[in-house]
Design a protein that fits this description.
CATH superfamily of one domain: Tetratricopeptide repeat domain
Helix content: over 70%
Low-confidence stretches: none
CATH topology of one domain: Serine Threonine Protein Phosphatase 5, Tetratricopeptide repeat
Strand content: under 5%
Order of helices and strands: HHHHHHHHHHHHHHHHHH
């Protein structure tokens, strides 16, 4: 009944009255710091006809809002803005934001379109930062597909493009290159790149980036049989990520903490942290991470539940087109059957 009454009175307002009320609502929410209030503020700015103001703000805080689990709201806001009506410089951060959310949700073809459009637009503008970010994100998608050589080419290109224009982007690229070295088994080279990435993040005060670098350094530690050292790195990264409200990184860390406990032979704690990661990843729509956790639970559990986790992982990776991950799960299923 409340909604019906609200719609009844709203429909009888004149356009100037609606714009004024939405403007007042935006001012009300502007004074509140909660992520949900930021979403409401942006919505009312758009409805008040202040699309440019909303676009600039969304380009600045959208990534943080998405990381806090509000991806659906961010995409709805993006969908309510005519991006092509904006100035090109204001379109670039919004296209990047749309692509990043699509990438996390496993909508890789759409993400690639967003990043390709960003790359072209940023290049025309002479925006090295935006161009490098788009090329980096295209490389991340290729990495997820399992095309490591193509990913490396794109990461190197992004590094060349950005030069010294943005240390935070350089830090992200160094981290991405470190992951490729880790995948190749070059642990010393990976560690060097992760440390350089962490130092660059610290230099610009990027706590989220520092947490990501600590996470990757932790992976290297347990691969070198220093599982307790890995758990210490994960604990530091988890503290930073929880303080920031970065749910996506928290989901990754829960999974990696579970991996460390599995390496220690502590199945109960491994399962506990895997399950935490799975619940949070499902809430976020973080599809690739869901596949990763199902794969790890399938390794951990040797009963029918483990087999079902492997089947779910296979379904996710096949749907994503993540070929290396798909092939690994298929091998695990063959081993389980033998």
């Amino acid at each position: 009944m409340h909604d019906l009454l609200r719609e009844f009175f709203y429909s009888r307002l004149t356009t100037p009255q609606r714009l004024r009320l939405h403007g007042l609502a935006a001012s009300h929410y502007e004074a509140r710091a909660e992520p949900e209030a930021r979403i409401e503020m942006l919505y009312h700015l758009i409805q008040a006809g202040r699309t440019k103001d909303a676009a600039v703000l969304l380009g600045g805080i959208g990534r943080s809002l998405a990381g806090k689990g509000l991806q659906d709201d961010v995409l709805k806001l993006l969908g309510s803005i005519d991006l092509r009506a904006l100035e090109p410089a204001h379109r670039v951060p919004l296209l990047l934001l749309r692509g990043e959310v699509q990438s996390v949700r496993g909508e890789w073809p759409g993400a690639q379109e967003s990043f390709d459009e960003t790359r072209s637009l940023a290049e025309d503008l002479g925006d090295r930062r935006g161009q490098a970010r788009a090329v980096l994100e295209l490389g991340v998608i290729e990495y997820r597909h399992g095309d490591f050589n193509v990913a490396r080419t794109l990461f190197d290109r992004a590094l060349t493009i950005v030069g010294d224009a943005d240390s935070a982007i350089v830090a992200r690229i160094l981290n991405a290159l470190g992951i490729l070295e880790w995948q190749a088994g070059n642990l010393d080279a990976a560690a060097d790149l992760y440390r350089r990435s962490r130092m660059a993040y610290e230099a610009v005060g990027d706590a989220a980036g520092v947490a990501g670098a600590l996470n990757n350094l932790g992976i290297l530690r347990w691969q070198r049989d220093d599982v307790d050292g890995a758990l210490s790195d994960y604990a530091d990264a988890l503290r930073l990520s929880e303080e920031l409200g970065d749910h996506r990184t928290v989901a990754i860390l829960y999974n990696n903490i579970g991996e460390a406990y599995r390496r220690k032979g502590d199945a109960a704690n491994a399962a506990k942290f895997y399950e935490r990661s799975l619940v949070l990843s499902e809430k976020l729509g973080f599809l690739w991470q869901m596949g990763e956790v199902h794969r790890n639970l399938g390794r951990l559990r040797t009963d029918a539940r483990g087999l079902e986790h492997l089947r779910r992982a296979l379904s996710i990776f096949e749907g994503l087109g993540a070929r290396r991950d798909r092939d690994e799960v298929q091998r695990l299923l063959v081993d389980r059957a033998s």
